[in-house]
Amino acid sequence: MATTDTTNNQTKADRDLIERMVSALEQRAAEAPNNRAAADTPSQARTISSEATAAIASFIKTSNELAVLPPK
Amino acid sequence: MFRQLAKRLTDTIPGVDGREAVLDQHPIELAARLEEAFEVGRDLKPEPISPPETRTSRQESLGHPNHRSDVRAMVQTNSLSFFGSGLNVPPSNVLPEARWDHLIYSYMIENTRIYEIFRRVLYELLHGEKLGTPLPATHNWLRSTEELFYRDPAPFLITSVASHLRPDMRSNRRNAYQRMFGMDLNHGGEDGKPYPYVRAEAANSEFVATFEEFLREVWVGITYVEASSSSNPTDDSKISELAEKLHDMLLSRRQHGNLSREEFAHVSLMSWFHMTLEFDSPIVLSLRAEATGVEQRLFKIAERVGLPAHGLSKNFFDIADPISRLLIEIEKNTFSSANAVEALYTKDTGTTSNPLEAAMRTIITHWTAITGHDVKARKVAAN
Questions:
Q1: Which pLDDT does position B32 carry in this prediction?
Q2: What's the ipTM?
Q3: Chain B window 312-341: which residues touch A at a Cβ cutoff of 8 Å?
Q4: Which residue of chain B has the CA closest to A57?
Q5: Are B360 and B344 in contact (CB under 8 A)?
Q6: Buried-most residue among A72, B52, B55, B354 (CB within 10 A)?
């Protein structure tokens, strides 16, 4: 009997595990379109420091001062 | 400088092609434009984005990108319309903030061998008909080019940087490159021998090594900026330290406005030839060198005169503008703070794409091509 109980307990644990895995897979499948959409969009923009923002602004200003016509 | 002038003429005067308008001007009108550009650009307004306590131009030392020189040019005011161009635009309207390019622009453009090739073009066209007869519109270009760049400079002009003491402009340019970057051009004279010039003792011989280290560290930042599943080896402090080292060595050569006139004269000269090749200009048409792309026109002209251009001319043309702007920013000490250097490698900054990061990619790509030094490869530490 002890052996049977152990087997039953083991079977129940396996069943629970399988159910949890199936549930997780179903949830992942349901979220897949969203995941794909997220993968297709550009990576999330970083928040940069105010000093870095000022550096970019300075570079843009210099570039505007030295702007040239595009080659034909 | 001429390319910036062409852009401003195009933007300012409706229906005018700025490049054609510049090439069509009388040589003395062009000389007056150069004087005006130097006068406006030698002492620009202080940086508006810097903290208020540092906004006075006097704190931007002589030699700083916003305060290049205290030497005055001859300011022309009402004389520009006397020479037939019909533009009649007061210079101050055309050149409101006339910064000029960094000397590195001149170095990169000259490495294509553009000066030597056009020297031979002029020589042939002025001595015979080996290259055919120039088209009518070409005569203005020929006259201006010879007057401005292939003769003893007129006295008292700001671009008059040759004299009995330093008679050869080609040697003078090489001297400036050696002092500022510790580099010579990649070609010698027309005979293939090294071109003689005076080598200064005070020169930035460590510029190349430091700049390449700077590029290498920025590339690490570009590579790992979006990494989420690995450690990020980007070293902001090191990038900042290298930028400051470059700043110090470049401004050391510019102390008290040193090399400013020379830089202005050299970048103006290269800008003239660069602009000539940016479209099917009269001289390009005369030489039947129409093509798509600046370097392709140069290759065709080089073939006509039998003097090969550098095979990597496209790389030199493409790197010239962004590297000039980067070195100006380094001289402004823009990257002195470790917090500022992420601007060099962060692509998406929230509101818009980052042109500085794009410029760094361009510089790294072309620098690797023209030097053969792969700054994208990590350094291997010796055991």
A1: 86
A2: 0.89
A3: 321, 324-326, 328-329, 332, 334-335, 337, 339-341
A4: B49
A5: yes
A6: B354
3-state secondary structure of B123: helix
Q: What's the start-to-end Cα distance of chain A, in Å?
A: 90
pLDDT at A1 over 50: no
| SS3 category, B229 | coil
What pLDDT, on the 0 to 100 scale, is given for residue A22? 52
- Closest by Cβ to A71, choosing from B10, B225, B279: B279
| Interchain contact B225–A (C-beta under 8 A) | yes
Interatomic CA distance for residues B161 and B287, integer angstroms: 31
- Alpha carbon of A48: minimum distance to chain B alpha carbons (Å): 6
pLDDT for res B313:
96
Is residue B232 less than 8 Å (CB to CB) from chain A?
A: no
Q: Where are the domains of chain B?
A: 207-255+321-371
Name residues of chain B where pLDDT drops below 70: 47-59, 76-97, 350-351, 380-383
Indicate the residue of A43, A57, A72 with minimum beta-carbon distance to B226.
Answer: A43
Sign of CA dihedral B369, B373, B376, B377: positive
